[in-house]
């Protein structure tokens, strides 16, 4: 490591998938959120709009995938995830 403490960060960071019925991954370019991606094609489009004509999503010098690689688009289910916790109130059921 150099004296200056420079650490390389790829310009594109794809954050971990969200939980829920419609998970997405937040995409940042140079530290600025540019959108929500639901598939690798969305990430590629954000990068194209930033000026890279043919982005290689597997290039670690371009894209840092957090919380899973380009094939991961949802969080694994956790046992009891649909049950309220001890400090969470139960949600009322919708009337029919």
From TrEMBL:
Biased composition (Low complexity): 75-85
Region (Disordered): 1-20, 52-96
Domain of life: Bacteria
Protein name: Uncharacterized protein
């Amino acid at each position: 490591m150099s004296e200056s403490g420079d650490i390389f960060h790829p310009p594109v960071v794809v954050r971990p998938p969200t939980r829920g019925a419609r998970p997405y991954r937040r995409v940042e370019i140079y530290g600025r959120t540019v959108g929500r991606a639901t598939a690798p094609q969305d990430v590629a489009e954000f990068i194209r709009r930033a000026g890279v004509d043919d982005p290689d999503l597997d290039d670690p010098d371009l894209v840092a995938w957090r919380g899973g690689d380009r094939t991961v688009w949802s969080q694994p289910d956790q046992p009891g995830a649909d049950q309220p916790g001890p400090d969470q109130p139960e949600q009322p059921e919708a009337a029919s």
